[in-house]
């Protein structure tokens, strides 16, 4: 089978599951239900997609295909992931609003370099690849049970307690995809609302390792405690050129 056909098959697999806005939003009245296990459909999608990508990798190798020089950067291309899946948990009541736990995971965490270069050489191929690493559980803010807003809450997963103690802070930031038009208006949140947000999410920290959560981004601002400062990212070992992603 030729590489173009295999690429087409990969595109067919790339049906991004978002948990549509029309999905039901069951209410977690207690606010402390444990986060669910990863959806079994993710494993099935990974298995089928991985097999197709392996076939494409073998076909490219057998054909001696080489990427265009313009697509090759100093950074190895196999840092690309392929596709993602969004899983939602029951919403939780907070002071004057709701929070919805959301998990975002990659379908394929690492794509072989030649497959990545081949896909980005096709029209629209970059739509299936990215280097975004903002995976893990986080929380969408809803003003009511049916209206998601443009902001999400994330833990500072790099935070470590000091000798003086303290609690892991939670932060708010704009939703990365910008698909929701209803504004969350975090600048208007009072202390009661902010503290209720952290209280609704805190049981998850006791039930799960912090590694399953998405870390707050550099542009995030503290929710609670208000005085929190995001723990800086570790310095990279060296700076390298990366392949730019085309705008959709």
Shape: elongated
Cα end-to-end separation:
29 Å
Average pLDDT confidence is: 82
Instruction: Report the uncertain regions.
Output: 239-248
What does this structure look like?
It is a single chain. The protein has 248 residues and is an alpha+beta fold. Helices cover 24% and strands 22% of the residues. Strands 1, 2, 3, 4, 5, 6, 7, 8 and 9 form a 9-stranded mixed β-sheet that branches. The longest helix has 24 residues, at 40-63. The radius of gyration is 20 Å and the shape is elongated. The protein starts with a helix and ends in a 24-residue tail after the last strand.
Brief synopsis:
The protein has helices spanning 3-13, 40-63, 113-120, 191-207, and strands at residues 27-28, 81-88, 91-94, 97-108, 129-130, 136-144, 147-155, 170-174, 221-224. The protein is of the alpha+beta class. Strand 6 (136-144) and strand 7 form a beta hairpin.
């Amino acid at each position: 089978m030729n590489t173009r056909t295999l690429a087409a098959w990969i595109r067919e697999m790339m049906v991004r599951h978002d948990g549509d806005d029309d999905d039901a939003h069951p209410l977690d009245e207690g606010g402390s239900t444990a986060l669910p296990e990863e959806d079994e459909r993710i494993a099935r999608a990974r298995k089928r997609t991985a097999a197709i990508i392996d076939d494409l990798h073998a076909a490219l190798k057998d054909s001696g295909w080489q990427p265009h020089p313009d697509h090759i950067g100093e950074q190895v291309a196999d840092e690309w992931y392929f596709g993602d899946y969004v899983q939602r948990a029951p919403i939780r009541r907070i002071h004057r609003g709701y929070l919805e736990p959301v998990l975002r995971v990659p379908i394929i965490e690492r794509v072989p370099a030649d497959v990545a270069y081949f896909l980005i050489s096709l029209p629209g191929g970059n739509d299936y690849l990215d280097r975004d690493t903002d995976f893990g559980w986080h929380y969408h803010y809803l003003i009511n049970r049916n209206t998601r807003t443009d902001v999400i809450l994330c833990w500072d997963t790099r935070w470590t307690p000091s000798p003086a103690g303290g609690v892991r802070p939670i932060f708010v930031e704009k939703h990365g995809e910008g698909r929701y038009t209803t504004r969350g208006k975090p600048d208007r949140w009072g202390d009661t609302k902010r503290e209720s947000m952290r209280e609704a999410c805190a049981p998850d920290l006791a039930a799960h390792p912090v590694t399953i959560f998405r870390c707050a981004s550099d542009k995030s601002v503290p929710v609670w405690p208000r005085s929190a400062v995001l723990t800086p990212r570790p310095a990279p070992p060296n700076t390298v050129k990366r392949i730019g992603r085309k705008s959709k």
